[in-house]
Amino acid sequence: MTSEQPRPGAVRDAANGGISAALADLGTLVRIPSIAFPGFDRAQVQRSAQAVQALAEGTGLFDDIQIRDAAIDGGDERGMPAVLATRAARNGRPTILLYAHHDVQPVGDEALWETPPFEPTVRDGRLYGRGAADDKAGIMVHIGALRALREVHGDDLDLGVALFIEGEEEAGSRSFAQFLADNADALRADVIVVADSGNWDAATPALTVSLRGNARFTMTVRTLDHASHSGMFGGAVPDAMMATVKLLSTLWDDDGAVAVAGLAVRDAPTPPYTEETLRDEAGLPAGVSPVGRDAILSRIWNKPSITVTGIDAPSVRNASNTLSPEVTVVISTRVAPGQRAREAYEAVAAHLRAHAPFGADVSFTDVDCGDGFLVDTGGWAVGEAKAALEEGYGTAAVDLGVGGSIPFIADLVREFPAAQILVTGVEDPHARAHSPNESLHLDTFRHALISEALLLDRLNARTL
């Protein structure tokens, strides 16, 4: 076969025929606890990278396949291992960069898992396991699509491909920008597919066209030089817990909407989305009301939110009749698309300083800012992707905003400004990424793999 015309029927059949093998390989990846956070075993992340490298080699497509890492902040510390595989384009065809990540979130409380987190388990049409959806399924969509393309086109394939499987996305992508700079020539592409997002539902594909940014930081509130007896001084001396609770409460108004001056709101329409759907997808009980105002998806896609994601204070087990001198919290601010994350952080920090009660000392550390993302939907690659998604799923793709953040996309935009970036994914609203009982909807995976294979086939027929 030649690469002069797309071959959708043959590619679809090849992709569909490879689903079982792709799921088996996904199960092998899920069994590797590749957690890149500090304190976890780096050797497991290396083991995961080696498994991905072997999968890339097995496609028979690439000219070069390596495991690489990069420096963090220009120092001696190195980031986690990533896999980079490349093949050059021929005969004027475009080059596509396929991104996913092989590291996963920590398990959390293992007692909340219904099945072992690193033992892939199929139940009711879903594959359960940590990383089954986020984002080892993204890896296998890429690998499965490439296998199908190889099966149909063989040595006549002209499409250029760079496969970049990162190893530290969940841990903050600390070496990502340096990795891009170090490997810019190998990674440069006309189209970039980031397989790390979600879909409208299990049967309806989506292209993510907006992402909120994130400003995450640690705040320490101090009111005393040392702990004191709560009976002897309580009622006259403010303890740090009291001050922290009062301070944090100023971040939201009575409706639960963010009440911080200087945080932007994006003015953009959103599709219909009911409170009933929100309750189903988020697990919101009947007696608990949603927070915020205006359309629900506007609150999630276009407005800022603030969440306290961690707190260091005396535990219930260690509670005593003591006034706490110091409390530390982690605050995550989701930033409306279009506002710089650093600007949002400064606004929140200024608010917290201005509202610190009783003269409490407030300090900030570990500031981590990642900008949001807005897609230019006018490029030719968006049209090709939507056509492939509709063909693969059997239903038209929707433009999706996402309340979460993928900060490294801003690095991709900066390093490769001419590339068209497509943010896709295999998750559905019930995937529970980052949570106990994370799972992958098997039909969604099948449709996603077929759709990407069809996209690659369409690009292989396109001359720049």
Protein architecture, described:
- The chain is elongated.
- The longest helix is centred in the C-terminal third of the chain and has 19 residues, at 442-460.
- It has helices spanning 8-17, 19-30, 42-58, 136-153, 176-182, 184-187, 230-233, 240-249, 275-282, 296-301, 341-354, 380-393, 408-415, 442-460; strands spanning 64-68, 82-87, 95-101, 121-123, 126-128, 160-166, 191-198, 206-211, 213-222, 228-229, 305-312, 322-323, 326-335, 361-370, 373-374, 398-402, 420-427, 439-441.
- Strand 4 (121-123) and strand 5 (126-128) form a beta hairpin.
- It folds into 2 domains: 8-211 and 372-460, 3-Layer(aba) Sandwich (Aminopeptidase), CATH 3.40.630.10; 215-275 and 290-369, Alpha-Beta Plaits (2-Layer Sandwich).
- Helix content is 33%, strand content 23%.
- The chain has a 6-stranded mixed sheet with strand order 1-2-6-3-7-17. A 4-stranded antiparallel sheet has the order 11-13-9-14. A 3-stranded antiparallel sheet has the order 4-5-18.
- The chain is α+β, with helices and mostly antiparallel strands and 464 residues long.
Quick structural overview:
By secondary structure, the chain is α+β, with helices and mostly antiparallel strands.
List the helices and strands and how they pair.
Blueprint: H1 8-17, H2 19-30, H3 42-58, E1 64-68, E2 82-87, E3 95-101, E4 121-123, E5 126-128, H4 136-153, E6 160-166, H5 176-182, H6 184-187, E7 191-198, E8 206-211, E9 213-222, E10 228-229, H7 230-233, H8 240-249, H9 275-282, H10 296-301, E11 305-312, E12 322-323, E13 326-335, H11 341-354, E14 361-370, E15 373-374, H12 380-393, E16 398-402, H13 408-415, E17 420-427, E18 439-441, H14 442-460
Parallel strand pairs: 3-6, 3-7, 7-17, 8-16
Antiparallel strand pairs: 1-2, 2-6, 4-5, 5-18, 8-15, 9-13, 9-14, 10-12, 11-13
Helix pairs in contact: 1-4, 1-14, 2-4, 4-14, 5-13, 12-14
